[in-house]
Structure formats: C-alpha cells, structure tokens
Predict the structure.
Amino acid sequence: MSLTVTPTGAALGAFITDIDARQISPEDAKALNDAYLKYHVIVLRDQNLSDEQLVRFGECFGHIEKARFISPLTNRDDIMVISNIREDGKVLGQLPDGEMSFHFDRIHQAKPCRGAALHCKETPMAGGDTCFSNMALAYETLPEATKQKLAGKFAVNSFTYTATTRAMKDGNGPRATHPIVRTIPETGKKALYLCRLMTDRIEGMDIAESNALLDELCDHIESPRFIYQHKWRVGDILVWDNRCTCHARTDFSSEERRLMKRVTIGDNALPMH
C-alpha cells in the first residue's frame, strides 16, 4: 500500500501513514521527500526503530552527520541523545530539562544542517512538546517595507552549548554569519533565517536598531498562526526541514523521564554565502 499524507491543519506539517519506517522503498523515499519539502515537517506514528534503523531511515533525506556529543544510551556516533535521564547524578543526554526558546539547529555554524529526524522513546505525561514555526510563511506575510529592509542583510548567530534561553548564553560559544532571508533550493521559496535563542545582531545596523528589528521579527515568527505544536507519543518519528522551520520546546516536569534519539541530516547544497 502506498503511503498516505494528511496535513495537520496547522500552518505546516503532515502525518504520514500506511508506512513502516523500517522498510522504505525508493518510491517511499521519494514520496517522503516530496512531503518534507511541501509541508516542512512530517510525522510518522507508532514506529519502533533500533538506532541502526533510525540512521537508515534518516538517510532517505540525505547524509547523516556525526553527533557532537556521544551518549552512553547509544553505541553509535551518529545518534544524538536528547534526554534528562541521569545515572549517579550525571545527565546521559543533551538538552535535558525544561523549556527551550525558538532556534535553528546549527545556525551558529558555517554550514548548518538540512534537517533532522527525531524518534520518541519516552515522553512525560504533559509538556515537552515541540513547536515548529513556518519561516517561509512568516516571510511571505511580512510588509513589503520590512522585506526591503531585510534584503541583502546578514545576521550574526551564536550558541553556548547547554543554553536553552538567550539569557543562559555566555558569549563564548561558536558563531557564524548567515543571510537573514534564505532561499530553499528545491522550491525557490524564501524563508526567514533568524531566531530568538541564537541570532545576536543584524550586520550594518547600530545595536539599538538591530535589537528592535530582531525583537519585532521574533515576535512575528512566534505568532500562533505560523506554528504547529507537536504533542509527542512514544513511537513518533518527526522529520523537519531546518532551513525553513525554527523550533522550540515547552516546559515539562523534571520528575518525569524524556528520551529522544536524533539523526542530523547534512546539507549537500553549496555554502550559503
């Protein structure tokens, strides 16, 4: 049976059914990629993949990058473990606790990733949702005057590892400069490329003007009309296009376990500038 694509009804995202993520045919892989480009976020439910199977599934969307941090909860160097599970007081995963502000993965690096696939193994009873904002739609709905103001502009982005809010950054982490509006090569769509957690300033503006414009843009992209909020269930696999969606995490109880395994999909396109 061919897979079925059902839009979430929000500003982005689609559910994929009638598919077993352990057995992806070339036709399935093409259909998954088509849905990924159209809806920016795709969700497969009721899947139970081993780490090796998750890597093979992720390869449908591109090459899989090595994880920056290795967790004892996996034996692979291409699986990132996002978890608050602790052993003898030591956290076994990355980004363990609480709320996390809107961000793009690896926007602080010279060549960010194309996307990622996240597989839910354990989730709290409430909270720990992931919110995705449609940055292509957010750009399309900007006033023309704002689009003109952003044309050709670049922004400096930085990150402090383990920071989940802007206030937690120490200013010493890696940084990279990228266009504040980028074009998705497969579709030609333009998308905003900035976020509250990691974008520090817009080049060519004084700091007050830059801060005011970034606050205005961040408020815009975080409006509910652009967002799909995913409530995790064990067995979910969610794949997102990191080039035209930014994402955030809602708060959850530190008394409940959360375990996610992620593969990062590399970007084969040319450098952005």
